[in-house]
Each structure stands twice: as C-alpha cells, then as structure tokens.
Write a structure and sequence with these properties.
alpha/beta; nine-stranded mixed sheet; 13 strands; 25% strand
Length: 303
C-alpha cells in the first residue's frame, strides 16, 4: 500500500448554514482530506497550527494513525475561515479569511515524507503548494485543489502549480471563473489545456464530472442526501476518498478505470461529510458505513 502526502489548511471555521451555525470548529482542507483518506491508506500531513490549536484536535488525526510529523505548531492563531451558505448549498460565500500562522509558513518536509508516491496539494496558498511539491522526489501521481480566493489573489502562482500536477479538482464555479467560460464542459477542457491530464469538476448535489485528455468524460452521480446540514469540506473529503483509494489500490500510475473507481470513493465520503457541522459526520464513517453507501451508489448508477 502506498502513502498519501497532503499539504493544506488546518483551520478553525465559523460557518452559518440554513440549518444553524458552528463557531470556531475544526476544519481546513488538510483536516478533511486526511481524515477521509485515512479510511483507505496511510496519510502524512504538512501544515501549521497556532498555539490556540487544541491537543484534542491533533489527537483526532493521530488516533487515525495519520502521520503529523509535518505539522508545525507556532506562536499565533490558527488559520480561520468564516463562511455562509444561503439557499444555494452548493456555493460557500466567504466572509473572512484570516491566514494567521499560514502567512509566514515555511514548509520543511520530514525526511520520510520525501519519497511519498501520492501527493495532494489541498486548497492553500499556491506558493506553499509549490514549495512542498519541490521537496518530494519523483512522486507517482500528484493532485491539487484550489478556490476563488487564490484564483483572485495568486493566479500566476496557481497556473504554475497546474502545470506540475496530474489531476486538478475544482468546483464548477471555480473552473468557469479561472477559464472565463460559462459552459462547464468547455471550462473543463480549458483547465486541462493549462496542464493536468485529468480534471475533476465537483457539482455538489449534481455529482461530478471527470475528464481525461485521452479518455474523454466520466460522469458520477451524487448520492441523494435530503438533510444537507453543512457542505463545508465536501470537496476535500471527496479528494481524500479519491486519493486514499488510489494509494490503497494502485502500485503504478493509476489507470482510467482506477480513477473512475476512485471517483465513487470520493462521492461516498463527501456525501457523509455534509450531514453534520464541521467534521462530526465524517469522523463517524467506518468501513461498514462506507461499503453500505458504496453499494447504494453502485445500485443507483447501474441497471
Ligand atoms: P471545501 O471542501 O471546498 O468545502 O473546503 C472547506 C475548507 O477550506 C474549510 O474548512 C476552510 O477552512 C478551508 N478554506 C477556506 N478558504 C481557504 C483558503 N483561502 N485557503 C485554504 N483553505 C481554505
């Protein structure tokens, strides 16, 4: 089994949705990603937290055998994101992004991390994504995520990262924004022209579209969920399930069929995350719940 290395935000989030709100609760792209991926494979985390970050929150990762040797703790406050979802639960509205300790973060990978086969550059400053990637020796498969905040503020760095990855995950709105296109399919193809062989566009309750320059399109439906409490982390849980699945099942470079199966794993993990605030629902997912939901998904998309 291969391992997955992730760099991304470790955060306290303040989130308001039509179901209620959660103040300064655990979040961040690397937290959602690594908990999700750890159901399938071993995970190594790179990131930084402030002195306000609780030991109990670090233990959530170490209890899952996630390697946190690459997690630095420094004086200051942990990254804080404040967001709200109105009637359209597929789109978060950012109210505040406080980088705090991430503003001066200089990632130094522990020696053991440098030979990781599967690398995921979760949503964080693209400059940090590049710094981490440059320290890994010939990874087999590299993925990235990003969001409108970085498309707006660091677009040229983001374009550099896109050139170096095999696969990129984006929301439909972000893909359209980056390529200045109103059609989702055109946007996907334009994102692929910027570098990556594969593009995954997440479309919330409508599922996801995966595109390969060589194989064309694969459409995955989302599992039907009626009680969406908090969509935060859906994308990172999707990517975590996707990469965790690949690391557990692929010895070489993933095939197109591997990527399709990984898409179903990501779909199941994201459908669980959204059913409660913060990481509460994701943390309850065990292998049994995963398999039950995967069978339901497969039944729903075959005849
Ligand atoms: P998503 O899976 O796209 O819903 O990601 C949600 C997580 O992204 C939240 O837990 C936030 O802490 C984190 N986040 C929000 N804005 C940023 C940003 N600009 N950079 C890194 N992480 C962010």
């Amino acid at each position: 089994m291969s391992e997955v290395l992730v760099v991304g935000s470790l955060a306290y989030d303040s989130v308001k949705t039509p179901s209620g709100k959660a103040e300064k609760s655990l979040g961040g792209s690397a937290n959602y990603f690594s908990v999700s991926a750890s159901l399938f494979s071993k995970v190594r985390v790179v990131g930084v937290v402030g002195s306000d970050y609780s030991d109990a929150d670090k233990k959530i990762l170490s209890d899952r055998k996630i390697d946190i040797a690459g997690m630095q703790t420094v004086a200051g406050n942990t990254f804080h994101w404040e967001g709200t979802y109105e009637q359209n639960l597929n789109e978060a509205v950012t109210l505040k992004t406080e980088l705090n300790v991430f503003a001066n973060f200089n990632p130094q990978l522990p020696e053991a991390y440098k030979t990781t086969d599967f690398v995921f550059l979760a949503n964080i400053d693209p400059v940090l994504q590049l710094q981490v990637l440059s320290q890994v020796n010939s990874p087999k498969f590299v993925g990235m995520d990003s969001m409108n905040f970085w498309i707006d503020s660091k677009q040229s760095d983001l374009l550099q990262v896109l050139k170096k990855v095999d696969i990129v995950f984006m929301n439909e709105a972000e893909a359209k924004m980056l390529t200045q296109t109103s059609n989702a399919i055109t946007a996907i193809k334009k994102v692929a022209e910027l570098g990556p062989e594969f593009v995954v566009v997440k479309r919330g309750e409508y599922g996801s579209t995966v595109y390969s320059k060589h194989h064309g399109f694969f459409q995955a439906a989302a599992l039907p969920v009626e009680k969406v409490v908090d969509p935060t982390g859906a994308g990172d849980s999707f990517a975590g399930g996707f990469f965790g699945y690949l690391a557990a099942h692929c010895t070489g470079r993933p095939t197109w069929n591997d990527l399709k199966a990984a898409t179903l794993a990501g779909t199941v993990m994201s459908s669980q995350t959204i059913q409660d605030f913060s990481m509460k629902a994701l943390l309850k997912v065990d292998k049994g719940a995963y398999e039950t939901n995967l069978s339901e998904l497969k039944k729903m998309i075959s005849f």
